[in-house]
Design brief:
With about 210 residues, chain A is an all-alpha fold. Chain A contains nine helices and no strands. Chain A starts with a helix and ends with a helix. Chain B has about 750 residues and is mainly beta. Chain B has a 22-stranded antiparallel β-barrel. Chain B has a five-stranded mixed beta sheet with strand order 9-12-13-10-11, with no helix packed on it. Classes of the chains: A mainly alpha (about 210), B mainly beta (about 750).
Chain lengths: ~210, ~750
């Protein structure tokens, strides 16, 4: 009886260890892929990264982060014009939907939604700013509400305001306080894990520096 | 016991330690061509890769065992192969089969300028475009005139397309015919369209070869799609040199329903006091108008109701062409009420339904009175002058019901069919004569969209119509197709037969008449990228049957129109400058009405060109819009009845038409998505260069004297201020997102 109990315990333990191993593999792969994200430059490298994140997301099924990063990569590609801008932004939408299906009311995902709306706006600002500008602002507001400690909504807002001419309520005067707030939040911000989003600090600092 | 533990432990270690890599390589191709950027995945693992520019992939995996290797790319069916991962490297080549999807399938563009808002940046004519075409004064028809295919006819309202008369173009809102799209006009002065461009999210300007869903338009269809639920609640007000307006739009918190109301008053008396007009307006144009809308989302669809009412009057005097000492006084009163109710719903099993009902009534009281020098009614005793006096009382009622079903077949192939019924009741009292014209027009139509591959689309349709007033039926086949010739380019072709019953002014004399008929052939090549569009189109239109009024009233008239058109729009090359160029070449002749032979009609120019530019200067928050239009002269004729035929006694060509329109709009909150109050100040002027514009000539009784038809004033100036106060919905947006 006792031996059976031990076997059972060991069995459970081995499952737990496998799970740990699995999760370690997830974290390791994500970490490696995230490093790739910093180095990726060409459209081909970026596309490969997005595909990699997508594979991880598809294999894991319950993790929102891979889809989140896939969406981020596609949105960045759209912004940088590494292909058909609208098409890339729409591909990001598909990843956002997958991430949201796993994690709702997620401040980080809302940030990507805002960022992606901004990418769509940038395709044709004159005829799109009214619709996508409002959408982007709404997602940022929702992102702040979902997690007031998240620095990224402030960083994104600061960046978009910095690139908006002063006449339209943008410029350094409005962007700098937001960037400073973002930097403050970045310093306090504790990422939920080593692979959770941490990006954007340099960008916020750059806004502060440029607006000196 | 110890051994068991060791055993388990060693197995666990083994899993972690044995990490020998296997290399998987191969290619992905379709129809013998490599696919770039296809995604390869060892299913349920992290491992995979994407194909490079030669369609090759290569990656390593540490997985062991049986897996499925998957190759995926947009526009193709995903392919799978079983693999066993052991020690050896694997080489696998995939051949993908095309999958026809809405995103990748080619769409047919022959004959139509589709502009569903925002779908693509390089669409042809969005609502914003209509509002910002310099000199178009936010009139949909005026803006459409800058597109290829449309003529610059300034003395009558309507779109004159590819050699067709204005009445050969019909306007549709949400699939439903608009019976009186323009305000009632006086001779030689075009009136504006009734509908504000702000009501619509999309316009399709079809210059021929359009779908079997539309009928009774010989030349062209202007298809307008109304907006769904607006983005936000807002109150608005406008004040300008010619009108005052106010409105309110309420959008439900959940954005599932909205209601709105607008009212306006237009009065040109102040404007005419400052800017002198050629005719003597004894009643300055003044109109009241009001509209209301209600919209709500259903389970998988939308119900929309829109109504608009307007009432207006104007009166003007001009010298009588036969005798300079007397005058003709026109007096026009118009009341119009328009209703449009529509319901679209997505049903089960790939079915969609669209229901619509419209009712409109239009009442015109028009009279012409010959006056003496002191503006007193007079009788000259000269028959051809005294008979110009008339009084017309016309009441038109139009109702329509339409139902269209759509079934999605295999893939994205569609079958669409439906029926519509028009009821037209027109009562005319012309001097002492009474006419009553009632027509029940029933149509049945069907069309199918066939997508054999992503590169080839085919639309086959047919339309059957029966009109009770002429007791005739017709059946009109329609065919169009598109073929993708490159990544961004495509070729389209359209063919169709088009029927239209004669206008009421013919039907009041005879019902024993057939349909007018035209056959269209159109071929088009288009290249469209993110911010640029280039298209060239050639057409041949045969008028198989046109109305003749002399020597007898029938449809024995014939004609043709042929030509080609070029369109280029570019938002890319010059930063922050959006411009388009259109050019139309038209060769057309027709023998209709009382023409003695085939002639180029007086509404057709051979060459028409437009340059539309829009530049928004961020620094000043101001947009500058210029539109330059050029058209070669149009022919004019004086024809006299010599007993058994009309003879051309005089003819000529007008001077070329030049018009530089300009508008400037100041938008202080532009770019500020958070602005609650929104202000637009707009000023515009037509014919900046003060070019002389001649639309044709009026002749006196015996043709010994002719007088140019000019616009009522050389220029039209406009200045207006539009304000809206949006109710900030950010909080709702947040709540909806959380």
């Amino acid at each position: 009886m006792k031996s059976l109990k031990i076997v059972f315990t060991l069995f459970m333990l081995s499952i737990a260890m496998m799970a740990v191993a699995q999760s370690e593999k997830y974290v390791q792969t994500m970490t490696a892929t995230l490093q790739g994200m910093e180095q990726a430059k060409t459209a081909e490298e970026e596309a490969a990264l997005a595909a990699k994140f997508e594979r991880i997301g598809d294999a894991e099924k319950t993790q929102w982060l891979p889809y989140y990063y896939a969406a981020l990569v596609k949105t960045r590609m759209s912004m940088a014009g590494q292909g058909d801008k609208d098409k890339l932004a729409n591909e990001a939408d598909a990843f956002i939907a997958k991430a949201e299906a796993i994690s709702k009311d997620n401040s980080e995902i809302l940030c990507i939604k805002s960022f992606n709306a901004m990418a769509k706006l940038m395709v044709d600002p004159m005829s799109r700013w009214q619709e996508y500008g409002e959408l982007s602002a709404n997602y940022l507001a929702a992102a702040k509400k979902a997690d007031p400690t998240n620095p990224r909504p402030y960083m994104l807002e600061a960046n978009s305001l910095k690139n908006t001419p002063e006449q339209f309520g943008g410029g350094c005067a409005t962007a700098k306080p937001l960037a400073q707030k973002a930097v403050e939040l970045y310093e306090k911000f504790k990422a939920a894990s080593t692979i959770a989003p941490t990006w954007g600090k340099e960008s916020a600092e750059k806004v502060v520096k440029d607006c000196q | 016991m110890k051994s068991l533990f060791t055993f388990c432990f060693s197995i666990l270690c083994l899993c972690a330690v044995v990490q020998a890599q296997v290399k998987i390589t191969g290619t992905v191709a379709a129809k013998g061509k490599p696919i770039i950027g296809a995604s390869i995945t060892v299913k349920d693992t992290y491992d995979g890769g994407i194909t490079d520019s030669s369609g090759k992939f290569s990656f390593t995996t540490t997985e062991k065992g049986n897996f499925i290797l998957e190759a995926r790319n947009v526009g193709y069916k995903t392919a799978e192969q079983n693999i066993t991962l052991a020690a050896e490297d694997i080489n696998i080549n995939f051949t993908l089969k095309e999958e026809v999807t809405e995103l990748s399938a080619v769409t047919i563009t022959a004959g139509s300028f589709e502009a569903s808002d925002r779908k693509r940046a390089a669409t042809v004519l969005t609502t914003l475009d209509v509002l910002t075409v310099g000199g178009a004064n936010a009139d949909i028809t005026s803006a459409a005139k800058t597109l290829p295919g449309a003529q610059q006819v300034g003395e009558q309202e309507g779109l004159f397309v590819r050699g067709g008369a204005g009445y050969e173009t019909k306007q549709f809102i949400d699939g439903m015919l608009v019976n009186n799209p323009f305000g009632t006009s006086v001779p030689d002065i075009a009136s504006r369209g009734r509908f504000s461009p702000n009501l619509f999210k999309g316009t399709v300007f079809s210059t021929g070869g359009y779908s079997a869903l539309y009928g009774q338009a010989l030349s062209s269809a202007l298809i307008l799609e109304s907006i769904d639920i607006p983005n936000r609640s807002e109150a608005s007000a406008s004040i300008s040199s010619v009108f005052l307006g106010a409105g309110f739009q309420h959008v439900d918190k959940t954005k599932k329903s909205s209601i709105g109301i607008n009212a306006g008053y237009t009065d040109l008396s102040a404007y005419f006091a400052i800017v002198k007009q050629k005719p003597d307006y004894f009643k300055k144009p003044a109109f009241y108008n009001a509209d209301a809308n209600a919209r709500f989302k259903t389970k998988k669809g939308m119900v929309k109701y829109y109504t608009t009412f307007s009432a207006g009057k104007m009166g003007l005097r001009r010298p009588n062409i036969n005798n300079a000492t007397i005058k003709n006084a026109f007096d026009v009163n118009n009341t119009n009420w328009y209703n449009n109710l529509s319901w679209r719903e997505t049903l089960k099993n790939g079915w969609k339904m669209q229901l619509g009902a419209t009712y409109s009534t239009n009442k015109d009281l028009i009279d012409l009175q010959v006056l003496d020098a002191d503006n007193k009614p007079t009788t000259t005793g000269i028959n051809y002058i005294d008979t110009t006096n008339f009084a017309l009382n016309r009441l038109e009622q139009f109702s329509q019901v339409k139902v269209v079903f759509e079934k999605r077949m295999v893939g994205i192939n569609m079958l669409r069919f439906g029926t519509e019924h028009w009821y037209n009741d027109t009562r005319i009292k012309y001097n002492a004569f009474d006419f009553s014209l009632k027509d029940q027009l029933t149509s049945v139509f069907a069309e199918t969209d066939i997508h054999a591959t992503n590169d080839l689309a085919l639309k086959l349709g047919a339309r059957f119509e029966y009109s009770s007033i002429i007791q005739k039926a017709n059946i009109a086949p329609r065919l169009s197709m598109a073929y993708k010739t490159g990544k961004a380019s495509q070729m389209s072709f359209a063919y169709g037969m088009f029927y239209q019953k004669p206008e009421n002014d013919i039907l009041q004399f005879t019902r024993d008449i057939n349909y007018t008929k035209a056959t269209h052939y159109i071929v088009n090549w288009q290249r469209m990228t993110d911010l640029q569009i280039f298209r060239v189109e050639a057409f041949y239109k045969k008028y198989n049957a046109l109305v003749k009024t002399f020597p007898a009233i029938n449809t024995d008239g014939t004609g043709y129109a042929q030509g080609f058109e070029v369109f280029w729009r570019d938002k890319k090359t010059i930063k922050e400058l959006d411009y388009w160029i259109s050019y139309s070449y038209l060769d057309t002749k027709r023998d209709f009405l009382y023409y003695p032979q085939k002639l180029q009609p007086n509404f057709a120019s051979n060459h028409t060109a437009n340059l539309v530019t829009k530049k928004f200067v961020m620094k000043w928050k101001t947009g500058f819009n210029f539109t330059y239009t050029f058209a070669t002269g149009r022919p004019y004729y004086f024809m006299q009845n010599t007993g058994n035929k009309f003879e051309i006694k005089d003819n000529g060509k007008t001077i070329p038409y030049n018009n530089l329109g300009f508008s400037v709009n100041y938008v202080p909150q532009a770019g500020n998505a958070k602005a609650k109050t929104f202000l637009v100040i707009m000023a515009s002027v037509t014919n900046v260069l003060n070019s002389k514009q001649v639309f044709g000539y009026n002749y006196n009784h015996d043709g010994t004297f002719k007088q140019a038809i000019n616009p009522p004033a050389q220029r039209f100036f406009f200045i207006g201020c539009f304000l809206s106060w949006g109710v900030n919905r950010t909080q709702d947006a947040i709540n909806n997102n959380l």
